[in-house]
Design goal:
The structure is a single chain. The chain is α/β, with parallel strands linked by helices and 548 residues long. The chain folds into three domains: 156 residues, Rossmann fold, CATH 3.40.50.280; 175 residues, Aldolase class I (TIM Barrel), CATH 3.20.20; 70 residues, no CATH class. It has 21 helices and 23 strands. α2 packs across α3 and α17 runs antiparallel to α19.
Length: 548
């Protein structure tokens, strides 16, 4: 059997997206076991039609199975892949993994043309499924970790396989066949890339050193199991050796939910990565941050740290089961500033304990402290997290399918719907306009001959509003919003400059309207309950309309 892996269209060609590590791990595992595999990464396909791209792949080789997957945010993109594959070949077997199936296999299989859903980690499950399907009299119901329909239409769940205990038994994820070189090109304009190299020579890679998380925050869901497991440092550095040798990588970000739960392991990692002379970033808990530790990590190349701040109210943090406090959050953020690190931390509003008072407390603090560069967002009831289950039980979410398909923002808080959906509109406006990001000074800009696709690079001279230092960055206009956010290469503070002035030859008011208008209309519509479950459908219609 030949298996075609299809990466959903997470972004348009040339735009940055999160590397599909999950699919790449399963692909590499099948490859190791001698399975005939190929990959179609739709994020790199200029063809607008998924169906046309798949037809080209099916013409190259006889495809027996199509594998795809992801989180439910990409429901429509995954459905497009499956529908197109079935239209091209009725006999092709469709397999879907990731949180879209693991969180709620019943809903996924009821509304998507899935032959086999993989729940949990997919490496061993998919190999065993392939062996079963190619064995006369093979019984898929004996393969752990599957969800499928029996001939009479009944849902069959074969039970959990359990977490993979030894992550070192897995090969490193696939890079070449997934178009990694194109991905690194797209990552040159990734937010925060200027911290590694202000001239845009960033060769970036995303690596995962562990699976799951040892904590249980109420807004989170762990599709790879509840037990936190780590790869050995030898195994991780085998991957780093491959990336630096094959692709000349100079920046690695560990995208684990939690980089490390053990300080001794972090220090050992720092000692081993120091000789490589590359930059790296990771996600830490605020309780792990100390100046002594950060200074050691910075000396080894650490350049950015992500933290889940979530709220600046202690009662809300307790409701979230964060096991942190407002004071701990502030101490950690200030410690990161002292270490001159870029922080990609975030706050999320709308917890069930949130009131107008707690939200205002957090927003007031956020507005008053732009130097920390914290992203403001809103909690989503993500299947199958604790707050999602509570929302189902309380009747806040009435239609599972509509919710999972669109993932609309629903009011879980103690605020009235009017107060909550007014907050939604404000947050998205502030984020779109970078309203509460400090304004930097644009000294000069020069359009270069070098291009990224059809977009010209610009050499931009800037002055930081916090430390006053002048710097030169090389960027291209990626997302057409009124302002572009910059990270100071000296003090790591976020600041903004107008896109129109920074990219005078490429900025377009029409392009900005095409990007912003559908988003603003959709979030205005969230104030009306009828439209909430049609959020993505309305956005797609508006996207098509604006393009005309």
């Amino acid at each position: 059997m030949h298996v075609l892996f299809v990466v959903p269209r997470f972004a348009a060609p040339g735009q940055f997206y999160s590397y599909p590590i999950g699919l790449a791990y399963v692909y590499a595992f099948l490859k190791r076991h001698g399975v005939s595999v190929s990959c179609l990464n739709l994020c790199h396909e200029s063809c607008a039609s998924t169906h046309a791209s798949l037809e080209q792949e099916f013409a190259k080789v006889h495809v027996d199975m199509v594998c795809t997957g992801g989180i439910s945010t990409y429901w429509e993109q995954i459905n497009d892949i499956l529908m197109s594959a079935k239209r091209i070949s009725r006999d092709v077997i469709t397999v879907v993994g990731g949180a879209i199936v693991t969180a709620d296999p019943e809903t996924a299989l009821a509304h998507l043309p899935i032959d086999y859903g993989v729940t949990g980690e997919g490496e061993y499950t998919l190999v065993e499924l392939l062996e079963t399907l190619q064995t006369e009299g093979g019984r898929p119901e004996n393969v752990k970790g599957l969800a499928f329909r029996s001939p009479n239409g009944q849902l069959v769940l074969t039970g959990g396989r359990g977490e993979i205990k030894n992550l070192d038994a897995l090969p490193i994820p696939e890079y070449q066949d997934f178009g990694f070189r194109d991905w690194t090109e797209n990552a040159k304009n990734r937010p925060g890339s200027e911290v590694c190299d202000p001239l845009g020579e960033v060769r970036f890679a995303a690596v995962i050193g562990s699976r799951s998380c040892p904590f249980s925050c109420t807004f989170c869901y762990h599709p790879l199991g509840k037990k936190y497991r780590q790869r050995s440092l030898d195994h991780i550095f085998g991957e780093i050796d491959y990336l630096t040798t094959t692709y000349d990588i100079n920046m690695i970000h560990f995208v684990d939910e939690l980089f490390c739960a053990d300080q001794r392991r972090m220090l050992a990692f720092a000692e081993r990565i120091r000789p490589y002379g590359i930059g790296w970033g990771c996600n830490l808990r605020v309780s792990q941050v100390s100046l002594e530790l950060l200074e050691t990590l910075v000396s080894s190349g650490l350049m950015c740290v992500g933290m889940g701040i979530e709220s600046m109210n202690d009662d809300v943090l307790k409701s979230m089961k964060k096991h942190t406090t407002k004071a701990m959050n502030i101490t950690a953020l200030e410690t990161i500033r002292q270490a001159r690190l870029y922080s990609s931390s975030n706050i999320i509003l709308g917890d069930p304990a949130d009131t107008t008072e707690t939200v205002n407390e957090t927003i007031t603090w956020w507005k008053s402290n732009p130097v920390y560069g914290i992203t403001l967002g809103l909690i989503r009831a993500v299947p199958d997290g604790p707050i999602y289950r509570d929302a189902l039980q309380e009747g806040i979410i009435k239609d599972r399918h509509a919710h999972i398909k669109n993932l609309p923002l629903v009011n879980l808080s103690k605020m009235s719907d009017k107060q909550y959906y007014s907050l939604v509109l404000k947050v998205h406006w502030w984020n779109l306009m970078h309203t509460y990001v400090a304004s930097g000074t644009l000294i000069g800009t020069r359009r270069l001959e070098e291009c990224h696709g059809d977009k010209h690079f610009y050499e931009i001279q800037l002055r930081c509003p916090v430390c006053g230092s002048e710097q030169t960055n090389r960027k291209f206009l990626d997302i057409p919003t009124p302002n572009v956010r910059i990270i100071c290469t000296h003090c790591s503070t976020s600041f903004k400059v107008p896109q129109k002035q920074a990219f005078p030859g490429d900025y377009s008011l029409v392009a900005t309207a095409r990007y912003a208008l559908p988003r603003l209309v959709v979030y205005v519509m969230t104030r009306f309950s009828f439209f909430r479950k049609y959020r993505y459908m309305v956005k797609q219609m508006l996207d098509r309309f604006v393009r005309l």
